[in-house]
Hints:
By secondary structure, this protein is of the alpha+beta class. The protein has helices spanning 18-25, 31-39, 112-119, 152-163, 236-243, 265-273, 303-316; strands at 3-8, 43-45, 48-49, 61-66, 83-86, 90-95, 143-149, 168-176, 183-187, 190-192, 200-202, 210-218, 222-229, 279-287, 294-298. Strands 5, 6, 7, 8, 9, 12, 13, 14 and 15 form a nine-stranded mixed sheet that branches. Strands 1-4-2-3 form a four-stranded antiparallel sheet. A two-stranded antiparallel ribbon has the order 10-11. Helix 1 packs across helix 2 (31-39) and helix 6 (265-273) packs antiparallel against helix 7 (303-316).
Amino acid sequence: xxxxxxxxxxxxxxxxxxxxxxxxxxxxxxxxxxxxxxxxxxxxxxxxxxxxxxxxxxxxxxxxxxxxxxxxxxxxxxxxxxxxxxxxxxxxxxxxxxxxxxxxxxxxxxxxxxxxxxxxxxxxxxxxxxxxxxxxxxxxxxxxxxxxxxxxxxxxxxxxxxxxxxxxxxxxxxxxxxxxxxxxxxxxxxxxxxxxxxxxxxxxxxxxxxxxxxxxxxxxxxxxxxxxxxxxxxxxxxxxxxxxxxxxxxxxxxxxxxxxxxxxxxxxxxxxxxxxxxxxxxxxxxxxxxxxxxxxxxxxxxxxxxxxxxxxxxxxx
Length: 317
């Protein structure tokens, strides 16, 4: 059974995009939910179908025929999770390397979503049936902190906080070389690579992207850095660090043969064989979506990056 919603566009939203107008008029829908409703032909403006970016005029009648959420087709799986914090609204976890966030071609099972559906039995459909509870993501081989919404209200508020850049994420990473200056901001647009669709790149047609970095420790030919995201583009830290000539150790897409720049043969060989990008979501700062309390979480480096740092320190000394 569907639900019919009707809205009259107020004067203050005259000329606004349809998707943004709906987000203002119906606060419980996320932007992704609104876009899917429009794409599915469930939204009309004065009885006409429109695109998400179409401007709407004051006095126009927007009608939304919202279908029932489909039950999730994703199977719940008993996969162990390293949970840092949990209450009735949110869950904060420390993601291991190798764990994919949601099912897709090539990864139909064994994902974080499969694990969450088992752990949170009432999660299905929150934020969409394919990615229930997910408000942000980490790459498969990036480790560290993630926050998950456990109800619609938390999902909506966390999604809004991410869009407003009110949630702060700081990563630790190991890169080639020593960035100069040792502290700075990389401001370069990131978009899909023009020739390789599996990669991202700094490109004039990309979306605005800013990363603040700081060298924490250096080992002659490599460095431990902290990166704070201002924006959250796909592969942003990996692309930005490669762009300034300091790709992350182990990065299969962006590091190339940069291991050859390391003079010490033992260190170079270890960096060449490191099995993943040395990137860890270390610190997460947010406001609790229900209580309004400020919350800060930290997750220590995983053992593989600790071992990498031990070898780099030993070789540099």
